[in-house]
Amino acid sequence: MNRHSDMLVFSGELPPRFDEAIEQIGPLLDLAVGNEGMTVEVFRAQGVVVEKRGNRAWLGWKKTVHLYRALSLLRGAWDAEEYTCKEEPCFKTGMMFDVSRNAVLRPDALRGFLRRMALMGLDVGMMYTEDTYEVPGEPYFGYMRGRYSIEELRALDDYAAILGIELVPCIQTLGHLNRVLHWPSMARYADNGEVLLADSEGTYELLRRMLEAASAPYRTRRIHIGMDEAHGIGLGAHLRAHDYEDPHTIIRRHLLRVKEITDELGLQPMMWSDMYFRPDSPTNGYYDGDPSPAAVASVVPGVQLVYWDYYHNTETEYATMLEKHKRLTGTPLFAGGIWTWTGPAPDYEKTLGTAVPALTACKKAGVPFVLATAWGDNGAEANLLTALPGMQLYAEFAYTGGYDAAWLAERFSVCCNGNIAQFLGLSQFNTVPGMRPTALRPVNAAKFLLYQDPMVQLFAKDTQGLPMERHYEMLSREYEGYATAGGLYADLMDFYAKLARVLAGKCRWHEQIAQIVRRGERSHAQILAEELEGTARDAEALRVAWRALWFSTNKPYGFEILDGRMGAVCARLETARTRVLVWAQGSEDEMLPELCEEPLPYTLREGGELFGSYAVNEIVSACRIDN
């Protein structure tokens, strides 16, 4: 493909603000508007149309964003003498940005994602803000968390509109509000530490301010009101005030009050659907039961349900849940997952394994809108740049009606200027050869090996006999090569090269030290302990690279958590080195009881599968670290 700046001469039915849009997305394709070059006639169509013959092209569009996808398709076929493509998406598709799990995207970084979305043809961006938006009169909303100002959100909405993308607010109006409710001044609104107090007039006064503030910066009248995972609703302050009530009854009454507010504000609400299933589940689960008559009766008309599912691997499982939703409310919307929440490295084996059957089921069921989510649970350790291939996957499925690996790679090269193999290969960080995941979630070795304590080795039995050091040494060389080659994602690849180097050093220690100490091999223990100094230097280099990567895409808030985690990694490496050196040099006073305990299985299941460990406080110690 010829990737120097090529000139285009446009005529025909151009969308509003086309000149502004092409100024933003043209450089990504090395295309510019001029008075000479390829002539491009633009016309209205039923979807995306691209025709090219020699130095002339015809581009058709129904929605504004279709034209920008058509331009990216034209760029991909630039060297073809003739090319024809017609696409009508099988559902509307969008991307949810999680800006509530410590990482709050910088506005300029979010604009970069919006530009890529336009080239892909994704026409909805959803801003998941639990507390990271400004609420006038509520200073603790997003306090010290990098909240967006009303002006920042309004400017982002303006920018998205230029590209033909609808930006939609997504907030929480019941659960998932721990970061607001943990402030002492906000305790009066709490049923428990996560859930708002239903049936309190003060709560609804707060919700009105929240809904007004959340919707004000946006053109759209659509709003996502959350309502998911409201665990323990009615069992805290509400129970003390009103005695026990069925959760379905409380949720319906609360939702009716929220709906009154959205109606008054002229908003069209949607919500997650899981709380219509959880109260009737013996496990408090989402997918293991049918909607009860009480659940059906509690549905509030006029609130669109969104079925979310990031876990299942077969089309049948998704089709079954879609049918269950139809008993509640008709065909729901759907949200699938780009697995960015496993830890420092995303998992694309799981992403592909869940997305393809899910999207296939959604297409067959006539689901009108599909959303890709990329959550940042437990610290947003994976940079959101790693979600780009997943975004491309959802876009290509929507426009082609299926999944083709070669086509996905080609489109990623055009829209994101990257080699998709480098991103998909990040799954190798999570699964060392010999590790087997459970059916519903992948192993996340990169996370638990990074934070596993060098002395208190909770995963020793789970990883016994696996070639961990060798695996990460291989990945270190591979990603060093990608970083050295340069390109748009060189810094990202350098981060993963450094991560692999730290993991290799830690795994060398983990694979050997306990057995060496038990055998009394002091000289060998001394060699391993001395090597930890280099591993600590590598860990510090990783921290610095991580900081640069974080600050390049996110506001500074939240990185203090990763700084603290990596500081603890380095401190414990130093402690392990010091203690083992003292023992290795013959001290009878220094005992190493942690390394002499018989290891027990932790996340290892009876069938040999690893469940993984997704929270740092589950990884670093058997002792409590939070109180």
Summarize the topology.
Blueprint: E1 6-12, H1 18-29, E2 31-33, E3 38-44, E4 48-53, E5 56-61, H2 64-76, E6 82-87, E7 92-98, H3 107-120, E8 124-128, H4 150-162, E9 166-170, H5 178-181, H6 201-215, E10 222-224, H7 237-242, H8 247-264, E11 268-272, H9 293-298, E12 304-308, H10 315-329, E13 333-337, H11 348-365, E14 369-374, H12 388-400, H13 405-416, H14 420-424, H15 445-451, H16 468-484, H17 490-519, H18 522-553, H19 559-584, H20 593-596
Parallel strand pairs: 1-2, 1-3, 3-5, 7-8, 7-14, 8-9, 10-11, 11-12, 12-13, 13-14
Antiparallel strand pairs: 4-5, 4-6
Helix pairs in contact: 2-13, 3-4, 3-12, 6-8, 10-11, 11-12, 12-13, 16-17, 17-18, 18-19
What does this structure look like?
By secondary structure, this protein is an alpha/beta fold. Among the domains are: 6-87, N-acetyl-beta-d-glucosaminidase (Double Stranded RNA Binding Domain); 123-271 and 284-301, TIM Barrel (Alpha-Beta Barrel); 430-618, N-acetyl-b-d-glucoasminidase (Four Helix Bundle (Hemerythrin (Met), subunit A), Up-down Bundle), CATH 1.20.120.670. 45% of the residues lie in helices and 12% in strands. It has helices at residues 18-29, 64-76, 107-120, 150-162, 178-181, 201-215, 237-242, 247-264, 293-298, 315-329, 348-365, 388-400, 405-416, 420-424, 445-451, 468-484, 490-519, 522-553, 559-584, 593-596; strands spanning 6-12, 31-33, 38-44, 48-53, 56-61, 82-87, 92-98, 124-128, 166-170, 222-224, 268-272, 304-308, 333-337, 369-374. It has an 8-stranded parallel sheet with strand order 9-8-7-14-13-12-11-10. A hairpin with a 2-residue loop joins strand 4 (48-53) and strand 5 (56-61). The longest helix is centred in the C-terminal third of the chain and has 32 residues, at 522-553. The chain is globular, with a radius of gyration of 26 Å.
